[in-house]
Amino acid sequence: MDREDLTELSDAGLVLRVSRYRQDALAEAYRRHAGAVFGLARRLLADPATAEEIVQEVFLRLWNEPEKFDPGRGSLRAYLLAQSHGRSVDRLRADSSRRQREERELRRTAEGGYDLEHEVWDLTVAATVKDAMVKLPDEERTAIELAYFGGHSYREVAVLLAQPEGTVKSRIRAGMRKMRTELAKSGVGITGEES
Amino acid sequence: MTELSHRDIEELLAAFCLDAVDDDERAAIEAHLPACPRCRAEVADYREVAALLANGDTPAPDGVWDRIVEAIEEEPPPLRLQLVPREIANDAEPAVAPVASRGWRSPRRIAISALSAAAAVAIVVLGWQVHDLRNHDDKIEQQLASANATRETLSEANQAMLDPSSRLARLTGTEGQHALAVLQQDGTGYFLASDLPALSSGVYELWSANANGTVSPLGSLDGPGVSRFTAGDDVTQLMVTVEPAFVNTPTNNPIAQGSVV
């Protein structure tokens, strides 16, 4: 009965099989998404060993609590990456060396600009995503990048950029909304409905 | 928890999806989302955007998969009944997911969708009761595994749970024992007793009682597990005793009992 070709199956179909303890379905989900889950964690944490721990935790959680993924609320990849990001940020925030990191970053910022171009473009981001990012005003892009790839809260981003918190919060929101609209136009699987 | 207006929350949703809000803001948003489809949709979109930002073709790290498999095989997941979202269940599959156990020696999970309200309540109760139970006796596992029938029984019990005309009984004991029974209109019942303590000897025997106090044996299990039984439609009460072997009259006091509702 397990002869079906899982590589042709939707992510939601895979998760259903995971919920029935099909280890081969978990393996296929891993094959599809573990690289991205790892890449994001490593990007935030720098330490590959900790990033590997995150990958392990994320897929074990999928195994143990597959019902937490609701396909009505988005893709499996987005779900797994949100897990990876949340866990990575938790690690960062628990890290005692965090102060030093912040101070270092503050210094870099003060010295004439966080090297955001480099930080972002060394990622292999799909061309459409790059295009959408490029179209964002610098201040919106910077705020999103510091939050998402730097693991900073918007309040911390405000400190890093010497901007009011409310302004940073608005920029993150404005930038994400524009990204959503742009990516929806490019047909990458976002509804893009304005609320 | 921070009090935030709907507007405040909307303002924060994008930052929330980037894990860039404070703990108390996050708690306020998480409390708000279940009641607000509009904000949930926005969160879903932002998460997709974030996923696209993250999207890199990093190869999966070597060795991690092996560690995952090792962890899976070392620590069985908790015994529980659980809900599978309708969207998943409908994915070219029957709505009721049969219990599968590839990689496992015993089936432990019943996937249920489209529950009747009564059954849903019962499942939630049972889910709570059996949550995180990790006591697994090897001997019993082997017995369960060797009986493919158990798997079928669980699948049938699953169907019975979905039947709105089924009656349910929560059996509880003074020492925290608990089990569930589901009784269909045709008299077929399922005794879900995976959560009872293992027995060093003897059997668990299930009994029915009707309004007149007539007690009848329904069957026995030689440890925690699941079994099918047949009962009359006048059953009002179910009980479990521990007996040296299957007997026709109980010789011990019930360790757990409950009304059929």
Protein model, in words:
The complex is a heterodimer of chains A (195) and B (261). With 195 residues, chain A is mainly α. Chain A has helices at residues 11-19, 23-45, 48-64, 76-94, 98-110, 116-121, 127-135, 138-148, 154-161, 165-185. In chain A, 45% of the residues are buried. By secondary structure, chain B is an alpha+beta fold. Chain B has eight helices and ten strands. Mean pLDDT of chain B is 73; it is low at 78-147. Chain B has helices at residues 6-17, 23-32, 37-54, 64-74, 86-89, 117-130, 138-146, 148-162, and strands at residues 80-83, 109-112, 167-172, 178-183, 188-193, 203-210, 215-221, 225-230, 235-243, 256-259. Chains A and B meet through helix 1, helix 2, helix 3, helix 4 and helix 8 of A and helix 1, helix 3, helix 4 and helix 5 of B.
Termini separation of chain B (Å)?
39 Å
- Could you state the order of secondary-structure elements of chain A as H and E? HHHHHHHHHH
What Rg of chain A, in angstroms, do the CA atoms define? 18 Å
Shape of chain B: elongated
Q: State the low-pLDDT regions of chain B, or none.
A: 78-147
Classify the beta-strand content of chain A into a percent band: under 5%
Summarize the main sheet of chain A. Answer: none
Taking the sheet with the most strands of chain B, its summary is: 4 strands, antiparallel
Indicate the overall shape of chain A.
globular
Q: Please give the count of helices of chain A.
A: 10
Individual helix count of chain B:
8
Q: What structural class do you assign from the helix and strand content of chain A?
A: mainly alpha
Q: Write the element-wise H/E pattern of chain B from the N-terminal end onward.
A: HHHHEHEHHHEEEEEEEE
Most extensive chain-chain interface:
A-B, 84 and 67 residues
Helical percentage of chain A: 55-70%
Oligomeric state of the chains?
A: heterodimer
**Mean model confidence by pLDDT of chain B:** 73
Portion of residues within helices of chain B: 25-40%
